[in-house]
Amino acid sequence: MRKAFTLLFTCSLVGAQAQDALRILSEVDKNISADSRIIESTMIVHGKRNDRTLTSKSYTMGDKKSFSEYLSPARDKGTKMLKLDTEMWVYTPSTDRTIMISGHLLRQSVMGSDLSYEDMMDDRKLQEIYTPQMAGEEMIEGRKCHILHLQAKVTDAAYESQKIWVDAERMIPLKQELYAKSGQLLKRILLSNVQQIQGRWFPLKMNYKDMLKEGEGTDWIIASIQFNQPIPDYIFSKASLKQ
Prior knowledge:
Layout: H1 2-32, E1 36-46, E2 51-61, E3 65-72, E4 80-84, E5 87-92, E6 97-101, H2 117-121, H3 126-129, E7 130-140, E8 143-152, E9 161-167, E10 173-179, E11 185-197, E12 200-210, E13 218-227
C-alpha cells in the first residue's frame, strides 16, 4: 500500500513539475514572440585586437518572414538579408550579388559575429521546438530564476537541447546555454537591460558567445523595438534586396 502511495505521489509530483515547466515556457514565449517586430539595433563584435560595430534595421513577420538591412559602417552599408520560410538570401552591394544561404552554410558566422545564420532564421516559439523540464532554481544578478532544460522534439532544431534561466517574476530568460547532440556546449547567451515594452518584458541587450571561439562574444543592443505593427508585404520580397 505504501509503495503504491509513493508511486502515485511521485507521478503526481512529476506531472505537476511538467505542467510548471510548460507554463513557464509559455510565458516566456508570450514575452518574446509577436505577430511582427521592427527593430533598430547595434551589433558590437568583440575581436582580439579591436571591436567592430554595425547598425541595422530589421523586420520580422511571424516565424516565416524576416528582412534586415545594415546601415553602417560604410563598407557594410546596404548589405541585406531576406528569409522566407526555410530559405535565406544575402545581398552584398560591393559585389552586386545575391547569394542563397542553405545547408551547412547556415552555421557560418553572420558579419563575423558570434551569431550564425541559423540563429537568425529560427523565430519559432520555444514550446514548438522543445519539451521543457524543471531543473532547479538559481539567483542571477540578484533575481530568482527558474532553470529549465529544453529537449528538442523536432528534427530541424538548430540546437539539440538548451538550458535556460528564466526570471521568476518577469518570465524572461536571463541566461541560455545551447548544446549539440553530443552534449557539447556550443553557445551561451546573457540577456540584460530587461524593460517593459508594450505590456511585455523584453531584454534590450544580449551577449552571444560562441564557446568554440576565443574572445568576449558579440553584443546585440536594441535601440528601439515595435511589436505587432503592420509591415508592407513588398519588404519581404527578393526585389527588396536590390532596392
